[in-house]
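Exercise 7. Given the encoded structure of a 267-residue chain, write a plausible sequence.
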């Protein structure tokens, strides 16, 4: 890893990172408020049959418990968009964007190998994601304390929830970087990565809302973001292993493809 490049990436992204972290923390402060304000009323409506139960199970989350409300927040489009700013946007533009602007060759003309560039960029994007997810945990604790439900929150399980999120979004970031090193333009790299994320998100949500499509969830990485299970004490090592394996494969592909690209730069 190149420390000079790593520092440059941090300095260039710190303002945007701060905004995203604050936004993520604020969103997660709001989730316990939703549970405290509407959880009991919603549960009564579902128990009465007015609202079908399957319509309240959105991607494995609900508002009937603090764990369900937090899980709902993690798969909500707001969270997806905030994390995707770096996990997808930064990752896909890291190499393809430089190539499109014609600056990649200049960057690699320095004493920096292609693998060094990739590893440094991967370390940077994983650091960004780690801080964003940590901000989510901080927001969850603050929100729970504000509305007086901190005693219902299993704080000791938040690190495992953070790890679960890191494996999911780290995997997507690795896919984005693999696409970035494979294309000469940002558009196809971004398009491929966004398409993968959207399809997987659709499969998970469809399976959670439609019982007949439940079997499709296993093909979605979002299915293995088991926020509610983790907060209730259930950890699926198999699910974590699947997320880790996807990220490892994407990293392996990038490390093989990037040095073999026909670029006017050293391997």
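Solution.
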């Amino acid at each position: 890893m190149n420390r000079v490049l790593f520092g440059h990436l941090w300095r260039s992204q710190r303002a945007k990172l701060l905004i995203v972290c604050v936004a993520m923390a604020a969103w997660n402060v709001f989730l316990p408020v939703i549970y405290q304000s509407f959880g009991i009323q919603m549960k009564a409506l579902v128990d009465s049959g007015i609202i079908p139960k399957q319509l309240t199970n959105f991607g494995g989350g609900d508002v009937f418990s603090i764990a369900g409300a937090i899980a709902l927040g993690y798969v909500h489009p707001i969270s997806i968009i905030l994390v995707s700013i770096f996990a997808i946007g930064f990752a896909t533009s890291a190499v393809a964007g430089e190539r499109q602007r014609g600056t990649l060759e200049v960057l690699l003309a320095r004493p920096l190998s292609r693998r060094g560039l990739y590893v440094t960029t991967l370390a940077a994007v994983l650091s960004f994601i780690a801080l964003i997810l940590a901000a989510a945990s901080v927001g969850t604790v603050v929100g729970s304390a504000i509305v007086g439900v901190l005693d219902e929150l299993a704080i000791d399980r938040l690190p495992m929830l953070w790890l679960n999120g890191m494996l999911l979004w780290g995997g997507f970031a690795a896919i984005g970087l693999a696409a970035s090193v494979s294309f000469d333009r940002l558009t196809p790299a971004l398009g491929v990565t966004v398409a993968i994320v959207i399809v997987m998100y659709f499969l998970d949500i469809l399976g959670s809302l439609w019982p007949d499509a439940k079997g499709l969830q296993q093909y979605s990485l979002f299915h293995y973001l088991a926020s509610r299970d983790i907060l209730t004490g259930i950890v699926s090592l198999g699910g974590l292993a699947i997320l880790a394996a996807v990220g490892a494969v994407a990293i392996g592909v990038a490390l093989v493809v990037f040095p073999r690209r026909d670029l006017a730069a050293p391997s």
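Remark. The chain has nine helices and no strands. Students should compare their own answers with the one above.
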